[in-house]
Amino acid sequence: MKTWIGSCALLLTLGTLAAQEDEGEKPEEKSPLSAATFSGLKFRSIGPAVTSGRIVDLAVDPRNRKRYFAAAASGGVWLTENSGTTWKPVFDQQGSYSIGTVVLDPSNPLVVWVGTGENNSQRSVSYGDGVYRSDDGGRSWKKMGLEKSEHIGRILIDPEDSDTVYVAAQGPLWSAGGDRGLYKSTDGGQTWEKILDAGEHTGVNDVVMDPRDRRTLYASTYQRRRRVWTMINGGPESGLHKSTDGGATWKKLGNGLPSGDLGRIGLAVSPVDPDVVYALVEAAEGKGGIFRSRNRGGSWEKRNGFDSAAFYYGEIVADPVDVDRIYVPNTFTMVSDDGGATVRRLPEEHKHVDSHAMWIDPQDPGYYLSGCDGGIYESFDRGENWHFKSNLPITQFYDLEVDDREPFYFVYGGTQDNFTLGGPSRTASASGIVNSDWFVVRGGDGFQIEIDPRDPDIVYAE
To answer: Looking at the whole model, is its pTM more than 0.85?
Structure first.
């Protein structure tokens, strides 16, 4: 039936052209690559989810940990309401597929804020187009401005006033200017005021709040610029700042922090004792590491010289029940039980490396959610064992090729940190294409791939 309809359409078109020629009219010339040419085609997912992809942030409903949002570096925002048994993409119709952060309003978990543009600075980072808000749990969205921010580091919502929102905007990675700095809205995102400005080359990476005093804020400025040939990761405008009046005025903190040029700084206030503030500091000349203040930023002590490779990692997480326990997502997730003086690897056997986000249940501190380059993992026993969510298809492909196999051609691609993969475009199975249909061609980070046109079993990968 579809073929017959298509044939009629073709005959009607030819008839129209013939009539135009008889009447001396010239048919309108249209590009074969116009939207109309492809209007009858629809995208369909063929996977893969066998390796998933980079997760940069998690936002968990405090009333129900089965419901949470996952932000993908280059795969939009996904919602699960059953602990990852099923997922729904909720951001596909918006202006950016690259996400930096997602957060729920503490007063109303149905209000969701998304900052677009991945907040790392590696080679494969993609940019965003500002800040979005949903008032219905992710079903619909409204753009709330800061379109030129390109990379959002953090969004912080006042727990007592939902209309007061802070946005840490890193700003463009490859150029100066744009919407960069710390912005504040007191009308739910309708208007924004820049309350911390460190210059056209420097944005704000992180902002945290004292849970006892919502007017006390800590924010880190971050000077960085990527070039084709190098990454300028730090400078004299990077630093740590504190406000006690909701951002109206700021004081730059020192007294124990490294001197000289700083880079990216991640922050965490202990919910157990908010006098204790942790900072993961990148600094020149090997002066960086884990720093702790026990007097609300008045003075700092270097606890450990851990190198965070901050262009790709930069977060520090405080345990919800133990003031001395902290986590540092990194190539391997690091944990400390003595306030950062010593760090060790969290048990992560059979778990993907390169962690970027972590959530610990304050009611059950042995329960972890971890977002990494391989997707989302869940642990019920402090990392001793992990469950991989193998149904989240957000693999980041650098390059794609197809072969001439019959009856169904295969699709191949090199991926970020998840091998070079191959899989069928269709199958004869009633289940469709499943994870087991995909296979690894080559390990490591994949990129370009070529298939011999005479023999589809001969594949070249790098």
So the answer is: yes
